[in-house]
Design a protein that fits this description.
The protein has a single domain (4-103), classed as RNA polymerase II/Efflux pump adaptor protein, barrel-sandwich hybrid domain (OB fold (Dihydrolipoamide Acetyltransferase, E2P)), CATH 2.40.50.100. The model has no long low-confidence stretch (mean pLDDT 92). 18% of the residues lie in helices and 35% in strands. The chain has a six-stranded antiparallel sheet with strand order 1-2-3-9-8-5. It has a three-stranded antiparallel sheet with strand order 4-6-7. The longest helix has 7 residues, at 29-35. It has helices at residues 29-35, 81-85, 89-92, 116-122; strands at 8-9, 14-19, 22-27, 38-42, 49-50, 55-61, 65-69, 74-79, 101-105. A hairpin with a 4-residue loop joins strand 1 (8-9) and strand 2. The chain is built from four helices and nine strands. The chain is of the alpha+beta class and 127 residues long. This is Glycine cleavage system H protein. The glycine cleavage system catalyzes the degradation of glycine. The H protein shuttles the methylamine group of glycine from the P protein to the T protein. Its cofactor is (R)-lipoate. It holds the Pfam family GCV_H.
């Protein structure tokens, strides 16, 4: 189980786990629950640049289509092909096998992200 307090979050309901200069990005359980059953995930290609706050992918569910925003500026170093093949991983394991992309970033950019407490305050305390 991922330690949710060790992650950073965005107001767009993404989580970020840092390992040196590589940031693993996914959507939170709150976002996955609000989306409903995820049926399609479109992720950026590997070795492409993304810009913080810009759309870099799409997540479709039985309820709606949501845009995936890059939480940080960086280069895509890996995409989770398993989630493209089986989008339900976003619902069943959002903080584990349902991760979306890994970005090479400047780790100092994490200062602008939310901690778990601030994210829970944003979502009304819902886990």
């Amino acid at each position: 189980m991922t330690d949710l307090n060790s992650l950073k979050y965005t107001a767009e309901h993404e989580w970020i786990a840092f390992d040196g200069d590589v940031a693993t990005v996914g959507i939170t359980d709150y976002a996955a629950d609000k989306l409903g059953d995820v049926v399609y995930v479109d992720l950026p290609s590997g070795d492409t640049g993304v810009t913080a706050g810009q759309v870099c992918g799409e997540i479709e569910s039985t309820k709606s289509v949501g845009e995936l925003y890059a939480p940080l500026t960086g280069e895509v170093v890996e995409v989770n092909d398993a989630v493209v093949d089986d989008p339900s991983l976003v619902n069943s394991d959002p903080f584990g096998d349902g991760w979306l992309v890994k970005l090479r970033v400047d780790a100092s950019a994490a200062a602008d992200l939310l901690d778990r407490e601030a994210y829970l305050a944003l979502t009304g305390g819902e886990e």
